[in-house]
């Protein structure tokens, strides 16, 4: 696939509408780097160039070309029932992702 096509899929398409979505992937919240962990999506340290996707069962994949980091979180949030919300309420995916970014800073 041409590099220009990839860049089009991973860039924020409608920032003027406060919409952070790309064509094929999700993007960080606009202003994400200034938010606390509980308000950020995903972790506050991800670069604006990063992109990813979260799934219904709690799975999560996020790529950050600037920091050369790919984060994959596999889970099954719907077991034992769909009412299980700890994954979201405790911000587990973002908290684990943030651990990797903090490790990059200390290297």
Question: What's a concise summary of this model?
Answer:
The protein has three helices and three strands, in the order H-E-E-E-H-H.
Overview of the structural elements:
With 107 residues, this protein is α+β, with helices and mostly antiparallel strands. The chain is built from three helices and three strands. The protein has one domain (3-106): DD-peptidase/beta-lactamase superfamily (Beta-lactamase), CATH 3.40.710.10. Strands 1-2-3 form a three-stranded antiparallel sheet, with no helix packed on it. Helices cover 25% and strands 13% of the residues. Residues 19-88 form the Beta-lactamase-related domain.
Could you outline the blueprint of secondary structure elements for this entry?
Layout: H1 3-10, E1 51-54, E2 60-64, E3 69-73, H2 86-89, H3 92-106
Antiparallel strand pairs: 1-2, 2-3
Tally the beta strands: 3
> What is the fold-level CATH name, i.e. the topology?
Beta-lactamase
Number of helices: 3
User: Into which percentage range does the β-strand content fall?
Assistant: 5-15%
Named CATH architecture: 3-Layer(aba) Sandwich
Q: What's the mean pLDDT score?
A: 90
Give the distance, in angstroms, between the N- and C-terminal Cα atoms: 34 Å
Identify the CATH class.
Answer: Alpha Beta
N-to-C order of helices and strands: HEEEHH
Give short descriptive properties of this protein.
Beta-lactamase; globular; three-stranded antiparallel beta sheet; alpha+beta; 107 residues
